[in-house]
Every structure is written in structure tokens, then in C-alpha cells.
Amino acid sequence: QVQLVESGGGLVQPGGSLRLTCVASGFIFSDSKMGWYRQAPGKEREFVAGIHPNFNTYYNPSVKERFIVSRNNANNTVWLQMSSLKDEDTAVYYCTGGKLLENWGQGTQVTVSS
Predict the structure, then answer these.
(1) pLDDT at residue number 28
(2) Cα gap 61→43, rounded to integer Å
(3) Whole-angstrom Cα distance, residue 43 to residue 67?
(4) Which phi and psi (to 5°) does residue 30 adopt?
(5) What pLDDT does residue 20 have?
(6) Distance, CA of 88 to CA of 84 (rounded, Å)
(7) Full pLDDT tens readout for the chain, 114 residues
(8) Beta partners for 111?
């Protein structure tokens, strides 16, 4: 059974930091692309960051220099370190993974507000 379980969301002030964690099971993690998407209220889901099996990383230009995606294949975990958070980063953040990013977690809420 495929599972992606996110954690680490919450309320943070502008300029603050959060680290999201996603633990995966039920598929071959080390062979899989992993990524993070987000969906803000009233908006389409958008790509945030991705990391390939070879550890190459990719970012939405709006988060580059502020967010870092990383992975550990030994414990099937991917992280999203978010810094210098802005109000517009408020969204539900989803972990995704697989050969074609076909597996999705249930999401974790990130709220940036003073």
C-alpha cells in the first residue's frame, strides 16, 4: 500500500522558517522522483520543488533561494526546508513521489501570517 505522510506544517510569522517532512512507503523510493506542490485557497495546485533519484533538484522560481528540497533514500524521507517565508507561501503543501509523481500525500497546512 502506497503512503506518503507529510508533517511539519503550521503557523509562522513572515520571515520565519519551517521544515516539512514526507515519509514514503509502498514503492521503490530510491528510484522515484520526489516533489512538493502547494495549493493556496482559490488557486491551482502549483509545483514548488522536486528532487530526482540522482539528487538533482528543481524549484519554482518564486521559492528558489528560499526553499531547499532534500532526500534520504535510507529512510524513504524527503524534506522541504522553507526560509524567509512570505504571506504568499500560505497554502496546503503536498508531497508527491513515484516514477511519474503518481503518488500523493494528504497535505499539510502552512500559514504565514503576523
Answers:
(1) 94
(2) 17
(3) 20
(4) -65, -20
(5) 98
(6) 11
(7) 999 999 999 999 999 999 999 999 999 999 999 999 999 999 999 999 999 999 999 999 999 999 999 999 999 999 999 999 999 999 999 999 998 889 999 999 999 999
(8) 11
Distance of CA 22 to the CA centre of its chain: 7
- CA distances in angstroms from 24 to 2, 3, 40, 113, 114, listed in the order given: 8, 6, 24, 30, 33
Measured distance CA(16)–CA(59) in Å, rounded: 19
- The Cα 31–Cα 42 span in angstroms is 34
61: CB partners within 8 A, 6+ apart = none
Instruction: Determine the residue type at 89.
Output: D
Nearest to 15 by CA among 110, 63, 82: 82
